[in-house]
Design a protein that fits this description.
249 residues, alpha+beta, 7-stranded antiparallel sheet, 5-stranded antiparallel sheet, 12 strands, globular
Length: 249
């Protein structure tokens, strides 16, 4: 009897958290009707290469297109070597793989473009000495991504699987991907254990469907069917599905 009551309590708690996450997510996200008319304009939050001469690496996240944005985000990586005149953006675009090509896209463009209407936010920003070396290793890791011709929205591999893969190869990024980055827990090449994307801890995962991670940057996360629940003591935040991180900025 005790076990049944405990399970019911846990189930009710998870259901309430999902409702909170859904409410917050819908409040943040507008479902776009037509990708052809959705804005891809820059937001104006990226440094101007003509002014910022130092080496820069930034990681961006924006709500995914249409109904998918209620559940998760799309992430990408932007780099600019010292004195470079433009940013290079590394990202995974799923429809290219579904049409038989490589989903990995590497282009020179503004890194802070809206993702089909959704405003991006910067989730990592590294500049100055040592960043040029990071940029070289980011390029190597991106080009070695093992799932460039495979894409699955859930549970992965997808754009967030790619970003996590690169982050593990360049732990100096200290990248703490948001809990809404569905696919970040899908470990490449069929692995079941790896370092966390930040490089400050470890995780185990069963094909991105069930897993746990613990790290200095990430805190403790539990992944159930791609949905992340967690606490981040370092940043005094909780992590919820759909809503993302709740706590101090």
């Amino acid at each position: 009897m005790f076990k049944r009551k405990t399970l019911r309590t846990v189930a009710k708690g998870i259901f309430v958290l999902l409702l909170i996450g859904m409410a917050v997510s819908i409040g943040k996200h507008t479902v776009m009707a037509d990708w052809r008319t959705a804005s891809r304009e820059p937001l104006g939050i990226a440094p101007d290469p003509a002014v910022a001469k130092e080496a820069i690496v930034q990681v961006y996240a924006a709500r995914a297109f249409s109904w998918r944005g209620i559940f998760g985000v799309h992430t990408w990586i932007a780099t600019k070597p010292t004195d470079a005149e433009a940013f290079t953006v590394y990202e995974i675009i799923g429809w290219r793989a579904r049409h038989g090509g490589s989903a990995l896209v590497i282009t020179e463009k503004e890194p802070d473009q809206r993702w089909f209407g959704a405003e991006p936010e910067i989730i990592a920003d590294k500049r100055g000495p040592g960043v040029d070396d990071m940029i070289k290793r980011i390029d190597t890791a991106a080009r070695a991504y093992p799932h460039a011709r495979t894409y699955t929205v859930w549970p992965g591999p997808n754009s967030n699987t790619f970003t996590a893969h690169v982050a593990r190869a360049v732990p100096e990024l200290n990248l703490d991907l948001p809990p809404t980055a569905i696919g970040k827990d899908y470990l490449p090449e069929g692995r079941f254990a790896a370092k966390t994307p930040s490089g400050t801890g470890y995780q185990v995962s069963l094909f991105g469907l069930l897993g746990v991670m613990a790290g200095v940057e990430e805190g403790v996360e539990l992944n159930i069917l791609g949905l992340t629940f967690g606490i981040d003591p370092k940043d005094l935040a909780i992590k919820l599905p759909l809503a993302g991180r709740l706590g101090p900025s």
